[in-house]
Amino acid sequence: MDYQGNIFRPPSEAKSILLQVTTGCSHNKCTFCDMYKGSRFSIKSDETIMADIDFAEQNCKWQERLFICDGDALIVPQKRLLNILGKIRQKLPRVNRIGIYANTKSIAMKSEQELQELHQAGLDIAYMGVESGDDVTLERIRKGSDSKRLIEMGQKLTASGMTLSLTVLIGVAGRERSQIHARETGRVLTAIDPKYVGGLSLMLNPGTPLYEEYERGEFQLPDTLEMLAELQTMIEHTELTDGYFHANHASNYLPVKARLPEQKAETIRLIDRALNGEISLKPDYLRAF
Description:
By secondary structure, the protein is α/β, with parallel strands linked by helices. It has ten helices and ten strands.
């Protein structure tokens, strides 16, 4: 397989075939993220992509899922993306789920009909980073979208029939706006009503603008209990029709896996117990992003 730079994929795609169609991230401006800082965004040649699918046909015989990398591969022009999906169907018939990263810009570039075409061609799940529903925080971290845009594009994608998995960042608003961020994020998640929500706890990475703000004293990272309280408020303000709110990433202090709405009250009580010191939390040295 032709892999260039660092390859990233969602935790749920750990056993998937990783097909790198783009390099880098088309936005690449978020202040907390250093994932693609060394990579220039580009779309690989069809020749390279098709050769990788041929390779997967011969050498990836047990995987039943495929993830199209890298950041925001949904931005690939429609005709080319449909051609890639068609080749996957032809060469890898055993693959029963295809996933991709998306952002508001790439979703906006596709019409509703085009998104439906992609879903019919085999694109099953899209992953989008919301990070926060608080407009002040979204502007500060240079997300490139406000909460209204996040809601519009999230609803647009789910209307296509694709499953949507959203990521939110606990702690990204700092201490000052922690609870505002939690409530507003719950509002946005409720409006989009995705199938999956993944909550990650912010870990500051040296070299990122947000880390530099922290070093200058301009950003205060919430402590362990403040992050837990933020997570609790976020879940309290999130209403999903039939979805899952998971905060069991390696970055989190307390693993949470909740089906909403059924397990909402139970999960809030679990976090209460942790806040009261009745449950052990993961130490910082065991956390990873």
